[in-house]
User: What shape does this take?
Amino acid sequence: MIVILGLVILLAAGIAGAIGVLANGGDAHAVTHFAVFGYHVTGSTGTLFLYGIVTGALAMAGLSLLLAGARRTSRRGRDARRGLARSRRETAAASADRDDLRGQRDTAHAYTVHDEQQNFTASPPGDGGTARNGSDPGLRGPSLSQRLFGRRPAPPQAAPQPEAPTTPASGPVPAVEPEPPAGQAAAVPAGPLAPAQ
Assistant: This one.
């Protein structure tokens, strides 16, 4: 609808300009004393009107170029603002995700440290069931950096077992009595428990 309205206005202006130029031509309508930038315009008033139409058309062309450039600049600015807003939203979402992950990591770390402190501060057997507080630095576990980057202790090794002696155990060795020669009876020691003969 706007295009049709613009076309009607342009056609009406063209017809009015043509009639104005043609109706004011000839010697009866001579122009006297008219100068532009030191240039004296000669001819009829119709010619002067034609110069005015050309000047107006040039002015409209310049104005349209100016508005097109302003529109293009405005569109670029609007696109840049939209891009900036989108970038800010993405940055905010990434920051929120990072904060969530950091919170989850800190929570997991706090639970791990709490569990380790409970393991380190548990009361030894026979202490009456009282737990020691975690203020003693000797009861704290290794820090996070020590756990991640520190040296790990060597796995516990079994204590060396003493070698089994190759000789029999030392101790009282029973005396071996020599056997009596054949034909002789073994003498029975006489003593208070010896039976009477």
Q: What stands out?
A: Residues 126-132 have pLDDT under 50 and may be disordered. The beta strands are 35-36, 39-40. The radius of gyration is 60 Å.
